[in-house]
Amino acid sequence: MSQGEERYWSERARIEQGHVKYREKLREEGKLFVRDRLKLLLDPGSEFQEDWLFARSEEADTPADGVVTGVGRVGGRTVCVMANDFTVKAGSWGEKTVQKIIRIQEKAARLQVPLLYLVDAAGGRISEQIKIFPGRFQGGRIFYNLVQLSGVVPQVCILFGPSPAGSAYLPALTDVVIMVDGKSSLYVGSPRMVEMAIGEKTTLEDLGGARMHCTVSGCGDVLAASDEEAIELARRYLAYMPRSCREVPAAREAVEPGPGRSIEDVVPYDQRKWFDMYEVIDRVIDAGSWFEIKRLFAPEVIVGFARLGGRPVGIVANQPKVKGGVLMVDSSDKAARFIWLCNAFNVPLVYLADVAGFMVGTKVERQGIIRHGAKMIFATSQATVPKISVVVRKCYGAGLYAMCGPAFEPDAALALPQGQIAIMGPEPAVSAAYVKRKRDEFAADVDIHKLASEMLVDDIVPGLRLRPELIKRLAYAQTKAHEFPPRRNGVYPV
Fold first, then answer.
1. Which residues pair with 66 in a beta bridge?
2. How far apart, in whole angstroms, are the C-alpha atoms of residue 15 and residue 217?
3. Are strands 301-308 and 222-224 parallel, antiparallel or unpaired?
4. Do residues 174 and 241 lie in contact, with contact meaning Cβ atoms separated by under 8 Å?
5. Residues forming beta bridges with residue 327, ordered by sequence position
6. What is the C-alpha separation between 402 and 332, in angstroms, rounded?
7. pLDDT digits 0-9 by tens, 213-261
8. What is the C-alpha radius of gyration for the chain, rounded to an integer number of angstroms?
9. What are phi and psi of 152, to 5 degrees?
């Protein structure tokens, strides 16, 4: 081996180790070293093409300048990866760090492949702020590129540790954020800064911890118990995504649903009785295919990916078990963003409706229920992917619009025999002072067979037939060609 080769291999090995003295601290905290994370993420035996390995700060020993960037394979498909090395200045961003992130974003755009951000970073290095913060191709460019890539290629953030201050917007601008419980955090100002600025005393977990963001703020999409689980969840999520918006997600062999009660046994005819929509979902989708988004946040609406006859679909479902399934401010936002995500990457949508409409009252009006509800209606209107609406039991008021009623061009508007569609339910519509005859007349008007006779639904489907009916109709809708009117952009409700 020549002297040059020897130096190359020696230096490469040194850089790949990061700062070894901090590796033990990672282990004590239950965290993995960055290259061990990559081994779990990337397909076994596949080659990782690492770029800019020898980048470093001119002012300090910063192996790879604290970030690993390159191209590899996940699930047999090419992906680009950015992964912070917390052993190098706590994963903080220096001049070369920023340049490497920008370049891997540009590469993902050129290759038209997914980009994964494995984040574990203490923010920007104050000592290098002139080199990383204000310029045209400095830190701000990372966020500009995130928006340019949004809806073009899948962008996944696995948050293993901190992502503070301005860097907090990196996870916020990706498609999905997987956070590790008790380890990851996301905040604009640290607890110390909060106390100095506004006199509030708080803890890191209360201020920006993973569980808080997955249950209260909604900034986190999936809560993982460990680094290993977070990586496995990211691999599963990517299986529902195409490489870019120019393709459709890959199908797999169909799997029959798992055992359980029939839909007829699950869904009562009595509108006042609740049921668990997860049971309906389980009876419809391929067994083992459910991947839920924001399970802990606004649980009155359920959103997630699944497979129907082997093909990926996005499911938007009301949950009558929680708050009667009524649409609230947070649940409207949750559903709207998921609908936009599915539409961006050609994932068909299935709506499972059991909703009395949007919540009413002074509290929600002051929170802006109208503008938040408008987001969901906007997203449903805008979606051009195949979409099927199923009235599982009731669909009242503007809930019909949000859940892709007949006016929103679903490829099929279906209803179970229990289904009802109306401006409002019979109880509020007919006051208790009216005779029973009036209530019976109102109920007759919203009877699903009468609505079907008026062609307001395309078909009435018994529960046992719902899964094969959805598979058939989604198969026919694959060739759907529907373009939204050209424009610069819509004026989105906020």
1. none
2. 38
3. unpaired
4. no
5. 358
6. 9
7. 999 999 999 999 999 999 999 999 999 999 999 999 999 999 999 999 9
8. 25
9. -100, -50
Whole-angstrom Cα distance, residue 387 to residue 404? 8
Distance, CA of 101 to CA of 99 (rounded, Å): 6
pLDDT score for 424: 80
- Report the alpha-carbon distance of residue 440 to residue 421 in Å, rounded: 15
Give per-residue burial for 454-488: e unless 16+ CB within 10 Å, then b. Answer: eeebbebbebeebbebbbebbeebeeeeeeeeeee
Largest CA distance in the chain: 99
The C-alpha atoms of residue 379 and residue 333 are separated, in whole angstroms, by 10
Query: CA 236, 238, 241, 247 torsion: positive or negative?
Result: negative
Whether the predicted model's global pTM rises above the 0.70 cut: yes
**CA-based nearest residue to 326, from 295, 364, 270, 279:** 364
Query: Under 8 Å CB-to-CB from 135, ≥6 apart: which residues?
Result: none
Above 90 in pLDDT, residue 425? Answer: no
> Is the pLDDT score of 432 beyond 60?
no
Beta partners for residue 459, in sequence order: 414
| Closest C-alpha among 117, 152, 106, 347 to residue 244 | 152
- Do strands 185-187 and 387-396 pair parallel, antiparallel, or not at all (unpaired)? unpaired
Both tokens of 211, joined, read 């569980």
Instruction: Tell me whether strands 115-119 and 77-84 are parallel, antiparallel or unpaired.
Output: parallel
Q: What HEC string does the chain produce?
A: CCHHHHHHHHHHHHHHCCCHHHHHHHHHCCCCCHHHHHHHHCCCCCCCEEECCCCCCCCCCCHHHHEEEEEEEECCEEEEEEEECCCCHHHCECHHHHHHHHHHHHHHHHHCCCEEEEECCCCECHHHHHHHCCCCCCHHHHHHHHHHHCCCCCEEEEECCEEEHHHHHHHHCCCEEEEECCCCEEECCCHHHHHHHHCCCCCHHHHHEHHHHHHHHCCCCEEECCHHHHHHHHHHHHCCCCCCCCCCCCCCCCCCCCCCCCHHHHCCCCCCCCCCHHHHHHHHCCCCCCEEECCCCCCCEEEEEEEECCEEEEEEEECCCCHHHCECHHHHHHHHHHHHHHHHCCCCEEEEEEECCECCCHHHHHHCHHHHHHHHHHHHHHCCCCEEEEEEEEEECCHHHHCCCHHHCCCEEEECCCCEEECCCHHHHCCCCCCHHHHHHHHHHCEHHHHHHCCCCCEECCHHHHHHHHHHHHHHHHHCCCCCCCCCCCCCCC
Q: How far is CA 302 from the centre of its chain?
A: 12
More confidently predicted of 426 and 72: 72
Angle at CA of residue 222, ends 220 and 228, nearest 5°: 120
Nearest Cα neighbor of 53 from 119, 100, 105 is 100
How many residues can be counted in the chain?
Answer: 494
